[in-house]
Amino acid sequence: MSLSSSDGQERRPNVVTTGRTATAKPGEGKAGAGKPGAGKPAGGGKGKKPAPSMKVNQGSGMGPLGMVIGVVVLALAIVGVGAFYIIKDMNATSDAKAKQEAEAKLEAEENKTPFAERAAKIEGIVNYVAQKPAWLTATHKQGVLTFQTTPPVGGDHNPTWQNCMGNVYDAPIANEHAVHSLEHGAVWITYNPSLPADQKKLLEDRVKGREFTMMSPYEGLDKPITLQAWGYQLKVDNANDPRIDPFIRALRLNATQEAGAVCSGGVNVTGTTPRNLGN
């Protein structure tokens, strides 16, 4: 820019040095100006660092897929284990049914021989019909009654019987009802409550689904397992005893005191106190 004087000559204004150039920006002109990095924002002469780039780890895509595979494998394992136990139970049920069917055929064949003769051949059986017939009265009475044997094999009893349609009772039942079931021709299996589970299972397989049989725990037994029919008793040490099945085949239905009586329609409850339901 030029200024005109009164004599017409151009004059330039004095330039006052301020220590910075006319184009200097804040932060410039400090020590190190003119060097590389001069003119950058203050901060040790370094300026602002660029923001670090963000890396996205996409992986191989196997993370979610691996989780899906894991869930599927776990589900298949659960289904497999469940199927194993279902098949195992079905096979056990089928085996028990097949055994009962075989027992029924054998029982029918053996019934060609009088049952008393067959019972007499079972070692250790006690025949109270022959030994103590006076104990085997059969009057219907209400209330708590006294019996001559433990568990009882006969005597006066409650007017209502215990259901004996292959019933497995998980608690003691009343003697008064059970004896009435014996009168109808049932076989009653009793066992010490401390009997191992596998032993109980063997007894259950003989009873479940088999009419005119029942089983229940019984306190105070002098043997782990006892079998009762009307007038007969057998005591054994374990459920594998080979005398159990012949006892059932010989006396189930055959030892009845009321031919044609049923095992359904009685009481289906547990507890040692008899129910007074009338005659």
From TrEMBL:
<feature type="compositionally biased region" description="Gly residues">
    <location>
        <begin position="29"/>
        <end position="45"/>
    </location>
</feature>
<keyword id="KW-1133">Transmembrane helix</keyword>
<keyword id="KW-0812">Transmembrane</keyword>
<dbReference type="InterPro" id="IPR021454">
    <property type="entry name" value="DUF3105"/>
</dbReference>
<protein>
    <recommendedName>
        <fullName>DUF3105 domain-containing protein</fullName>
    </recommendedName>
</protein>
<dbReference type="Pfam" id="PF11303">
    <property type="entry name" value="DUF3105"/>
</dbReference>
<keyword id="KW-0472">Membrane</keyword>
<feature type="region of interest" description="Disordered">
    <location>
        <begin position="1"/>
        <end position="57"/>
    </location>
</feature>
<feature type="transmembrane region" description="Helical">
    <location>
        <begin position="65"/>
        <end position="87"/>
    </location>
</feature>
<feature type="coiled-coil region">
    <location>
        <begin position="92"/>
        <end position="119"/>
    </location>
</feature>
<keyword id="KW-0175">Coiled coil</keyword>
